[in-house]
């Protein structure tokens, strides 16, 4: 009972402090911080990012921006593990259900919209949270990419679009093996962009990525969630089984029936695997096993990305007291940045 009381008092103090800063900044025109603090929570699929981020947003008066490239699409709910209203606990969530599966959406659009939302949340007296597992999207918000300044050559791009993805990947491997190693045949759009950048600038896509600089506007706290690899893989397998019971097959069938096959939404994990069943290439059991395998491999790639490219403080979600440890980390960060 005493713990609940102090938790409530603590949350009131956080809210009051943030609102006080907002009042001073807007009424007196005084800016206390040179950068906006942003709480960033990342990690592999099925590790528990959604639940923990909602709890932290409740404690620290936050609002959540989704950092998942697939959750932007309407109707792709089960396969993307999209948060539902009952789970949100009254915390506003952004960049969910903002595009039709047939509509394109890329990292530059995400970066622009997320920057706007971070400013909006902060000006409203709230703490912005960025939560997701799409490494490139999260990284784009925190760093200024120089390759975004390279213009486009639509004629060159269209000529590449007529080639098989495997051929494109081999072309990229000849000029930029580092980028080719990170990209997959199922992502021809990114392969074409890497080739286009090299074609226009003579510079490797991977080198331009490494020339990034941290945004001068935001001060991020990067929190990573992880757990024992075997346990994580068990959670992923179980999650796929739960998704199938919830109606993932029917959800994937609706997307399949639209006829849109060469769009990012149709290439997402959870959908492309079940398309093999609809095409008669695999049995249902085989396609589900393929989905589990691809999800496990995706989780491994996510961890590799975050560990190699971002300065993340990691927490084991199985450890006792992990929520308290994360809360202490966030509180210290906010204190350091004079939020309260």
TrEMBL record:
Coiled coil: none annotated. Substrate binds at residues 45-50. Gene3D superfamilies: 1.10.20.140, P-loop containing nucleotide triphosphate hydrolases (3.40.50.300). It comes from the Bacteria. InterPro entries: Dimethylallyltransferase, IPT, P-loop_NTPase. Its cofactor is Mg(2+). ATP binds at residues 43-50. GO terms for biological process: tRNA modification. Its EC number is 2.5.1.75. It holds the Pfam family IPPT. SUPFAM superfamilies: P-loop containing nucleoside triphosphate hydrolases. It catalyses: adenosine(37) in tRNA + dimethylallyl diphosphate = N(6)-dimethylallyladenosine(37) in tRNA + diphosphate. GO terms for molecular function: ATP binding; tRNA dimethylallyltransferase activity. Residues 68-71 are annotated as: Interaction with substrate tRNA. Keywords: ATP-binding, Magnesium, Nucleotide-binding, Transferase, tRNA processing. The record marks 134, 157 as: Interaction with substrate tRNA. Belongs to the IPP transferase family. Monomer. Catalyzes the transfer of a dimethylallyl group onto the adenine at position 37 in tRNAs that read codons beginning with uridine, leading to the formation of N6-(dimethylallyl)adenosine (i(6)A). This is tRNA dimethylallyltransferase. The gene is miaA.
